[in-house]
Amino acid sequence: MDELRLRPVVEDDLGMFRRLAVEPGLIGLDWGGFRDAQKAARDFEEDGFLADDHGKLMVDEGGKAAGFVMWTAGSFDEITTYWEIGISLLPEFRGRGIGWRAQKMLTEYLFLHTPVQRIQAARHPENKAEQRSLEKAGFQLEGVIRACEFRAGEYRDGYLYSRLRTDPPV
Questions:
Q1: Which strands, in side-by-side order, build the sheet including 64-75?
Q2: Helix count and strand count (H, E) for the chain
Q3: Residue 15: phi, psi to the nearest 5?
Q4: Which of helix, strand or coil describes residue 18?
Q5: pLDDT tens across 131-165, in order?
Q6: What is the rounded CA–CA span in Å between residue 46 and residue 167?
Q7: Residue 103 pLDDT more than 90?
Q8: Do 81 and 75 form a contact (C-beta atoms < 8 A)?
């Protein structure tokens, strides 16, 4: 298996983000219809996808962009901040153990460089592979979020996973 690492997004990566906005099926279950293919370039120009309240890093396997991980700040009480994370891998990189390793690396990175206590991830109930990936990365299922997402013409449930800074290391 090639070396896996997370790295900042560079301008050459923007083509992948354009594809994710306009190619149905490339992003998997998260396809929500056609989007502005140039938005990623504008966002990259603004902050390089590394802002105080959100970010994206490329998942790089052996020098090839396999996809990206992302995080965004949230709060339940407007005082305490948590990170919500996500991942998107290109189809040819799925099913190879990259996802859980990349999410583990992102979680370690965020706990090392930010003071949050909680990192969470919402996932589709039908995406069993992603659920296993989160569990391998040390996340625990907290429960079902009912009718939390409008996708493919209907409201659908989601699963909420979390990992706390105080959880045992993976």
A1: 4-8, 54-61, 64-75, 81-89, 118-123, 154-164, 140-151
A2: 4, 7
A3: -60, -40
A4: helix
A5: 999 999 999 999 999 999 998 899 999 999 999 99
A6: 35
A7: yes
A8: yes
